[in-house]
Amino acid sequence: MSKPIKIGTRASKLALWQAEWVKSTLNEKFAGQAVELVTIKTKGDKILDVPLAKVGGKGLFVKEIEQALLDRRIDIAVHSMKDMPAEIPAGLCIGAIPQRESAADVLISKSGRRFAELRRGAVIGTSSLRRAAQLRHARPDIEIVPLRGNLDTRLKKLQTKDLDAIVLAAAGIKRLNLEQRITQYLEADIMLPAVGQGALCIEIRHPDPQLESMTAALDHPGSRAVVLGERAFLNRLGGSCQVPIAGHGEIKSDLFHLTGLVADVNGSHIFKSYLSGPVDSSESIGINLAEQLLARGADKILKQLQTMEIENGKS
May I ask the CATH architecture of the domain 105-185? Predict the structure, then answer.
């Protein structure tokens, strides 16, 4: 391309790190091609005093950037995959999924105590319904309080607010070289990760053969297979930030293994299941796992939550 490639990104420190990584990788692979960053403020960046689930859930951090793509103000969008809605808008596609960072969640506690060691009635900050439900399920005694803002803001609030601990994605902490702040990596039996957590989404217009060819150089086939399997699971459940859904896949012994979870917001009822099969069938496995959970009763939780969403929307 003769003119510079414009990469759209949010302006947070983590988002800029991710976009800079894409920029530098493109510079390495396509010497001589100019690449620029364009920062875009999303609705999720503007509304910081309300839990995401109450203001639209998934899509709040990507819609304005996707519109810039469609309007040709940018050529490539860099997102955190876990922020991506299940459906991609017409005219856009996932150009690449680079090699995934850790998908785990981590506990950062003020006292340095691990999750099981926190005092009875400990206050933990998170605005994720998925995290809150699983934390409550593991320890019904704890109190969950909303915690919004970028990664730096949330780390500061741990020190300035009356909190015992916060839960964050390991990937962001690692990318910003803050691993010394981690108290504990939360095991999957305590905290199953969000679909796509730890992965980047490189989104482009479709069709655009030139950019499709360029972004393909950033793709990691194993990460793509795993993340698309997780997203097929989410899509079949119609999941969003308003529903506590978790899904984590991995490739072991040349097979795709996927664990999925649906919970009610209080964590009192959790449906969890597992399925494995050929790597090239990851999306079918994701759909089948969702069907399995629905048949076991997860559909009742989803219907209840959807009814609550409709009622909240009318009020």
Answer: 3-Layer(aba) Sandwich (3.40)
Active-site residue, selected from the candidate residues 45, 71, 75, 83: 83
Under the phi-then-psi rule, with left for phi > 0, alpha for psi from -120 to 50, and beta for the rest, what region is 276?
Answer: beta
CA dist 211 and 76 (Å) reads: 8
Phi, psi at 176, each rounded to 5°: -100, 15
Q: Is 105 a catalytic residue?
A: no
What would the CATH number be for the domain defined by 221-315? Answer: 3.30.160.40
Element housing 96 (H / E): strand 92-96
Report which secondary-structure segment, H or E, holds 236: helix 221-237
Report d(CA 20, CA 62) in Å as an integer: 18
3-state DSSP call for residue 296?
A: helix
Residue identified by tokens 């699983």 is 134
Amino acid at 230: E
Detail the DSSP E strand segments found in 155-298: 165-169, 184-185, 200-205, 245-252, 255-263, 270-278
| Other CB atoms within 10 A of residue 45 CB | 18
In the prediction, which pLDDT does 314 show?
45
The ranges of the chain with pLDDT < 70 are 1, 49, 51-58, 240-241, 309-315
Rg (CA), the chain: 19
**CATH of the structural domain 1-98+200-219, one choice from 3.10.20.90, 3.40.190.10, 3.40.50.2300, 3.20.70.20:** 3.40.190.10
Q: Exposed, middle or buried by CB within 10 Å (0-12, 13-18, 19+), for 33? A: middle
Is 265 within 8 Å of 144 (Cβ atoms)?
no
pLDDT for 59 equals: 85
pLDDT value for 87: 87
Query: What pTM was estimated for this model as a whole?
Result: 0.94
